[in-house]
């Protein structure tokens, strides 16, 4: 019996628990991002005190956070049983293992994991047929978007979505929550930062192919930067971060805690800068392989013409940009207003309203 046939068979016998919510982040790879913020929001809300909040992980035993309640394995043969027992599904990517199916008794809430900078759907180069089928056929009951920009993109990528909610993303409240519980000094202590130098956060993107040229900053450049900055390296969530010279690797440390202490961000094709501009701190893009990346992966926005961010195509050019004393902070505000204008509380209110309407 195939997976889809199994799901349809299970639906004949399993009725959803009207007060059970299933959460998953990056298809079970993490306890993070908007699903985590939604979980913390709801577990602290008296209106949901009698709800069972369940997390799905690829490896549940790795997650021992004290606030976590029930955990299930997203790799288990019984995963779809637990999915069908939960009335509500909250995710930031696929919760259905890329197997879309009709779910009239359920509420599928999608918080996509970022503003789409890289191409998605039919415009994504080299996309597998399985993923394309999922894009075309998955039916979100509600999909949260940041702005009119990603609303337009997601309407094309996910044509069967029932309703789009352009109220921003709950992830904006993650830093707010951290600011109430931890100080920047404590974060620096946890990361082993002893210097008073400004902090540089370096977030390169996973390529998914063997690039023809060097795509990441070399050890020599990182060491040069470490003379001026404390450099923190955190790879994309698919990569395995390794130590490079004098930089601090923080592969499993909270990205949003690092936002609190970072003074400057360097990335390439990661949409993370859409979140970082919220704090009015410098952003530089390092895109030495932009032509190849555009051809092999596809991007929606050009760094210079669309975003107007400082972009370098070589390490020498990047160093010159960073040494110049003419950073245009107005660009950050313009990006925020166009691509990420809503407050996290707006998304929180919208999510609660959605859940309450089904009570």
Automatic annotation (TrEMBL):
Keywords: Cell membrane, Membrane, Teichoic acid biosynthesis, Transferase. InterPro entries: Glycerophosphate_synth, TagF_C, TagF_N, Teichoic_Acid_Biosynth. Belongs to the CDP-glycerol glycerophosphotransferase family. GO terms for cellular component: plasma membrane. It comes from Weissella bombi. It is found in: Cell membrane. GO terms for biological process: teichoic acid biosynthetic process. It comes from the Bacteria. GO terms for molecular function: CDP-glycerol glycerophosphotransferase activity. Pfam families: Glyphos_transf. Signal peptide: none annotated. It is a peripheral membrane protein. This is CDP-glycerol glycerophosphotransferase.
